[in-house]
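Write out the 3D structure for:
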Amino acid sequence: MSALRAVVLAGGGTAGHVNPLLAIADELTARHPAVRLLALGTATGLEAELVPARGYDLREIPRVPLPRRPSLDWFRLPGRLRAAVDAAAAAITEIDAQVVVGMGGYVSTPAYLAARRLGVPVVIHEQNARPGLANRLGARWATAIGLTFPDTRLRPKRGTAEVVGLPLRHEIASLASLPPAERQAAQVAARRRLGLDPTLPTLLITGGSSGAVNVNRAVAGAAAALLETGAQVLHLTGRGKSAGITPTERYHVLEYCTEMEQALAAADLVIARAGAGTVCELAALGLPGIYVPLAVGNGEQRLNAAAVVQAGGGVLVPDAKFTPQWVAETVPGLLGDSGRLTAMAVAARSCGVVDAAVRIAAQIEAAALRPGNAP
């Protein structure tokens, strides 16, 4: 097809929005080296740091949260939204974008509205099993929607929806694509790099970049039972959340890991929240997971993990039931059962998608070929 000329990408606030955006940007750049990409974001989200660091241009637009309940914010919304839509429209016009691609979140709503005003096709990627407000709005006039999970109820009125999976970070996609022998070598190398014993079964605990206090408390409270299995633990607590968690010879504590792909490469079993990014990365890597969904929001984390848990690739436990007692009674038996871990790994991998960025790039290219929109 003709080379893609210019695309605006909207998505920010959390790693769950920014990482897929960057994965899509990398894929588009690989396929169309001369394409101009412009990301929309806010001054305070992770995109303000991560997007420029990857070499892409970022245009800041006002953050416009959509009030879920009646409040004074309802009265402020029209003015805030108008300013944000104007800023998004200016960015789209600046590069003469052929397509606007949205990941959802605060910055996507004004991007969708600006694209509609300018007659520019919209392609949406929905990362969660339960769509957010922004993508439900954008779906009304989207040309195409890429879904992470097959049960997600989000369809455009006139376009097409396709299950594409979650675009993975290059480091994760590369690791997931390794043949078994190279993957095993990567595991040994990752353990050595992180100061772990390369020969021991390894349990990774992570609550995401901000950490998870209840997960930290429950696992640390069961540390003795975990170590009795002969395994080792790598516990990523989140910044400022390691107080009271004592490292030992086989219980390693870090507040943050800048090379998360190394931590995942080192692991045999992972305890984590159930954000879409976490679930999809573990599935692509064939890593068994114990998922502890965040007990706030609209319940999407429980739904995110449902398919891989149903397939046998993970265990789901409500946050309220994830206690030191539950960990001590449940995790050591799983950690010491190599046969079950292997079966879980195979089941998890059966749910994984490695080429999601390729699939959504094809949707973007097709949208750019709409009449009057091709270069």
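The mean pLDDT is 93.
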